[in-house]
Amino acid sequence: MSAVDFENVAVSTRVRLARNFSDYPFPNRLKSEESALEIVDLLSAQLKDVEDFKLHYMDTLEPEKAEFLKERNLISQALIDNKKYSAVLISSDRKISIMINEEDHIREQYFMGGFDLNHAYERISGIDDIISETIPFAYDKTLGYLTACPTNLGTGLRASVMLFLPALAQTDGMKAVVRDLKNAGLTARGAFGEGSSAEGHLFQISNEVTLGVSELKLLQAVEKAVCIVSAKELSERERLVEREGYTAFTDRILRAYGVLSNCFTIDFSQFMQLLADVKLGVAMGILDGSLQQLDVLLTEMRPANIDRMNGSPLSGAEKDLYRAEYVGRALHGMELLTESKRSKLSSER
Amino acid sequence: MSAVDFENVAVSTRVRLARNFSDYPFPNRLKSEESALEIVDLLSAQLKDVEDFKLHYMDTLEPEKAEFLKERNLISQALIDNKKYSAVLISSDRKISIMINEEDHIREQYFMGGFDLNHAYERISGIDDIISETIPFAYDKTLGYLTACPTNLGTGLRASVMLFLPALAQTDGMKAVVRDLKNAGLTARGAFGEGSSAEGHLFQISNEVTLGVSELKLLQAVEKAVCIVSAKELSERERLVEREGYTAFTDRILRAYGVLSNCFTIDFSQFMQLLADVKLGVAMGILDGSLQQLDVLLTEMRPANIDRMNGSPLSGAEKDLYRAEYVGRALHGMELLTESKRSKLSSER
Description:
Mean pLDDT of chain A: 90
Distance between the termini of chain A: 33 Å
Number of helices of chain A: 13
Oligomer: homodimer
Radius of gyration of chain A: 22 Å
Order of helices and strands of chain A: EHEHHEEEHEEEHHEEHHHHHHH
Structural class of chain A: alpha+beta
Strand order of the largest sheet of chain A: 2-3-4-5-1-8-10-9
């Protein structure tokens, strides 16, 4: 694979495994609360000394906290909906989450910034091995791991990489990408889950198929797709500048930065749009700073996280004010556009 | 008159007198270049020791310099068109200009920042008295001063005050203002001369009638109108905030500031629009700084002035880049929106 500047495209990597225990019926068939909570106890005892896990019973978790964990992709809506029986183990660095009694008995996930599928798989595989040592998984020699939904049958593995694709999204490039991925048994969807539109030009590439292919092959397929799509995105970015012209393109980026760093109120959707332009500017060297810095805002500025930072729930309008002030201060602190950077932009045209 | 905050409405004051000499035919009937230039000689000799005047013969003035003087309202297009015979005397502080052989033999003008019709009239009247001591004016006991165009007959006086009327312009208030002014023998027009639209929400209020009324009455009529219109504008600004709401209004101002202080390219028309919002923000206390500081940009950022500052002519696209960079640096230097100001805005909502 040729050298591709993944830093400016790949945002984060996630690998999750779906597992069920052979001694219990699937969560939707669990007869009593007791047997469900037995699984929770068993698992948390088992993992007690492995990582600095914290156990949250969904039943007693405040709705704001649940929303916050969902925004961070540590839990799913299905886990919340299932709250009578469900729980989650989360590592203190928030990289590992193990949802218990969601659709399957457990959904183990490793989440990290950047692009490293092998590392993510190794980490979550390590957890998986520890669990399997004492609690037998439902496994069929022909089919592999048994899951509640047939789409997860086999490896139970979903490898996902979140990509920032502003150029492909702004041109018509995404259509061809989505088609090619589908042909390769992969899928691209909006960053915020199935059916969500690609706010902030963020797309998650992951495997659709889990059955009849080894874990290694699945990881390789996603990795290869990420490489191809990233390279396409980078060349599309160059074309974007050529087509718009350096002046118009730079102006668009600088105006987005000007509005985002000075506005008095902003909703999440517009924040995402402007942040995408600012990130594109950073990726293209028009602004200083790093995408990683800016992606932190992407998480921080979601509604439940704002409530958490504020210490008490805010109305929608209050959140928009909070967001504008917070983002303005953060961007000024990042020094994305110093006087000397500005002069350099002018001299480079 | 009640206390009106003119600082936030009145931009500048101008008083001009149209005069002709009895011993020469009107400029359009001057038979030879010689007699026309005789007037120039006579006048410049007469005023040599009065002010630090500089004489420019329009015939030999570079077109760029002529355009520059026109942008500053020190000369008119008619003077440029008449360049074979015309000249101008300009004081070193650029407050006094005396156009020679424009439509009339002389057009004496005093121009100043702020609102002070009496001061402006006294200053230009002083010059007028000195000239009349040795060069007799064409004067009729019944009609008054004789002028080439009957609209200037009588006093030959035009008293103008430039007003910044963003609230009246954004609501429907201007229509009623224009009607009322017309009934009082006054007129309101766009800042850049007759027929020009009100770019940057700048309107010039001046007397239409010059005949049959004393200079004092004319000045008083304009002064009164300025007071009334300014008071209307100020109350309309309060209503503007009430109608838009503090948050939406503040957001609009801050976004205009953000774009204007960060854009990479901007044409004069959009610059004027955004500057008007920034000025409104300063006037309403949403931004720090002073309108006077910002109004300097209004003159500096006009095309011919940019060429002058650059030292050589720029293309239109180059001017737009120059403007964006210059305005950005100037606005950052003015510290209109510091971190502490921002915090204050949030706490005040």
